[in-house]
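User: Run a structure prediction on this.
Assistant: Running it now.
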Amino acid sequence: MRKRTICLMLFSVKYVKPGVSMVRRVKAAMKRETQAKEKNIKNRQKTYKEQETESREAALQSSISNENKGFALLQKMGYKAGQGLGKKGAGRVDPIPLNIKTDRGGIGMEEVKKRKAEEELEHYRQKVRVKQQNETQSLEDFRSRVRTEREERKIEGDLRRSQRACEQLDSQKGITVPREDWYWPKEDADDEEASHEEDEEEEEEEEEKEIVELTSFDKLQILTSYLRGIHFYCIWCGTTYNDEEDLCSNCPGDTAADHD
């Protein structure tokens, strides 16, 4: 008895493919929702502005009938529909377009807004121009500073080479004391400590004199002139010439630019 009851229950259940009924129900629901939206849009009460706009557009699309008094007067004077105004028909054919004011601003407000917008735009453009000019100037200043620092490093390097060459060439000629202290490279720390007392005496004497500080460029010019005049040596050629005539004939010049 129990087995027969279970079999009857199984036969009473309808076989349904998985997912088929669910898809149909979703599609039906979406269709009903779309239809409801279309029905709501169709039955929606139009606003006063929408009605006014529709009526105005409809009136503009329709031509003037003979019942219009102004049109009737024009016809009496010889005007025909589609003809231009004027004695020779060369005037306006289409009616003057309407410019309906829909906002609550006063008369002239649009011009004020337009002028204000133009001023703001011009102000923005001016700010952009100033910013671009500042960026260009900053870039140019940076490039100029880099060039100056590079030139200064090159001058310092040429000065050190000149000092070493001067010390060597002076020593070869038996010169034990440089013409100026800076003609030779600076002494080492041990030598400086040994000559500390002599330096103090020289400093006391120098304090009484007016000292003119020379730049590295000035020192380089003076030292290279000394090397060329006394030793016939050019640091950029790296050569000691036989005499002044040999130096003038074979050396391109007395500056680094002449040797580029």
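The chain has a mean pLDDT of 78.
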